[in-house]
Design goal:
alpha/beta; Rossmann fold; 190 residues
């Protein structure tokens, strides 16, 4: 079973994007293993810090490099993806020649309580992911409107239409990882 490093861009304790990602991970059991990668403890990117790299940065890079793919789960802040994700991406591309994202199969999803499902934030993130050499799945897209009635008290998806839609997405992402992950170069150790 392939391991997916899950990067949740909302650091809020009660984040709907974290809840959505966790529900999706439970739905994916048996097909994909979701490994949540903490990014809230990363300092703001500063090239000077490579003189004595923060342990949180080295841990994040190791976890991403060990995974078969990466799933970015982003909220939408001012029609853009979260600064926490940008910070993690910047740390992961450095130092020069040690890009932890290089060649990794990737996908982007997001949730909002509004009707657009983080679409603008997701689309802005997609452009950056190709620049850092990730192999991005373009379709199907998930612009998820988070509604509490779609979930039970344990945050499991209970709506059958939603379940079917997300199961199809999981199957497609798993197939994308199989198809594109074989040629992914391994990053040099940080």
């Amino acid at each position: 079973m392939k391991t997916v490093a899950v990067i949740v861009g909302s650091l809020r304790r009660d984040s709907i994007n974290r809840k959505f990602a966790q529900a999706l991970g439970r739905l994916a059991e048996g097909r994909l293993k979701f490994q949540f990668v903490e990014i809230g403890d990363l300092p703001l990117y500063n090239d000077d810090l490579w003189e004595n790299p923060p342990q949180s940065v080295l841990r994040m890079k190791r976890e991403v490099e060990a995974a078969d793919a990466v799933l970015f789960v982003t909220p939408e802040y001012n029609r853009y993806f979260s600064p926490a994700i940008k910070n993690a991406i910047d740390w992961g591309t450095r130092p020069w020649g040690q890009n932890s994202w290089a060649g990794k199969p990737a996908a982007v999803i997001g949730a909002t309580p509004g009707a657009t499902g983080a679409s603008a934030g997701q689309n802005s993130l997609k452009g950056l992911l190709t620049v850092v050499d990730m192999v991005l799945m373009g379709q199907p897209e998930v612009y998820f409107t988070y509604k509490p009635e779609l979930f039970d008290a344990n945050n499991n998806i209970v709506n059958e239409e939603t379940k079917a839609f997300l199961n199809n997405w999981i199957d497609r992402f798993a197939a994308w990882i199989e198809r594109t992950g074989q040629a992914a170069p391994k990053a040099q150790a940080a």
